[in-house]
Design brief:
Layout: E1 3-6, H1 13-24, E2 27-30, H2 32-44, H3 52-60, E3 64-69, E4 72-77, E5 80-81, H4 89-98, H5 102-116, E6 121-125, H6 128-132, E7 138-143, H7 146-159, H8 166-182, E8 195-198, H9 204-218
Parallel strand pairs: 1-6, 1-7, 2-6, 7-8
Antiparallel strand pairs: 3-4, 4-5
The chain binds cytidine-5'-monophosphate (C5P).
Keywords: ATP-binding, Coiled coil, Cytoplasm, Kinase, Nucleotide-binding, Transferase
Catalytic activity: dCMP + ATP = dCDP + ADP; CMP + ATP = CDP + ADP
GO cellular component, one term: cytosol
Length: about 220
């Protein structure tokens, strides 16, 4: 069985997908981390962000590897562990820009389908149910109010020692969602056969239980 979890920034996809994967003993694949890895490399190599050919060329000649670490995942770019470097607000914004390029998405699609080929995966992202795994057995569209998503991100970033505030984060999340929803190539949208789960006011455990129930019904 394959499970696709899509939704906007900060809806809790990664945390929830990781826990669902753990409970089912499935492989967890965070596709956002792949766009983040490319964004990090663009910044690090000073590739002009508005040059689609250069950005997609950089991806073509590099290697992204996701490695399982207990219930979570580490991210490698050409063998370098960049797991902790890809979670900054700057990388988030750059990730949604590189993700708008069709020539980048085409390459990511091939990599992601290859990773899911063995089955029994929980994959999270923006276009998993609509493009990457259109035949997934369970499709979830996870969302929450913009305010709540910004509050969750704030807690996460403050805990990691980043300096930021709620208003800045809310604006950044809104900007990223707009770019993700309005792009031409595989925009963020709920698949017709996806189940909508609004997590506003729900705890992580409650969301996980809800998704496991949905999986049971489809299993
Ligand atoms: O999920 P996360 O916030 O880590 O994703 C970072 C960015 O990568 C998103 O804002 C989105 O632009 C892009 N993304 C995507 N398709 C996916 C996963 C992520 O376009 N399947």
């Amino acid at each position: 069985m394959n499970i696709a979890i899509d939704g906007p920034a900060g809806a809790g996809k990664s945390t929830v997908a990781q826990q669902v994967a753990k409970r089912l003993a499935y492989l967890y694949i965070d596709t956002g981390s792949m766009y983040r890895a490319l964004a990090w490399a663009v910044l690090n190599n000073r590739v002009p962000i508005d040059d689609e050919a250069a950005v997609s060329g950089l991806l073509r000649e590099s290697e992204i590897r996701l490695e399982r670490e207990r219930d979570s995942q580490r991210v490698f770019w050409n063998g370098q562990d960049i797991t902790d470097q890809i979670r900054t607000p700057e990388v988030s914004q750059y990730a949604s820009i590189v993700a708008s390029y069709p020539s980048v998405r085409e390459q990511m699609l091939v990599l992601q389908r290859h990773m899911a080929a063995g089955g029994n995966v929980v994959m999270d992202g923006r276009d998993i149910g609509t493009h990457v795994l259109p035949d997934a057995d369970v499709k979830i569209f996870l969302t929450a109010s913009t305010r709540e998503r910004a509050e969750r991100r704030l807690k996460e970033l403050l805990a990691k020692g980043h300096q930021t505030d709620l208003a800045t984060l809310e604006a950044e999340i809104a900007e990223r969602d707009k770019r993700d929803m309005e792009r031409e190539a595989a925009p963020l949208r709920q698949a017709d056969d996806a189940v909508l789960v609004d997590t506003t006011g729900m705890t992580i455990d409650q969301v996980v239980e809800r998704i496991l129930k949905i999986c049971e019904r489809s299993g």
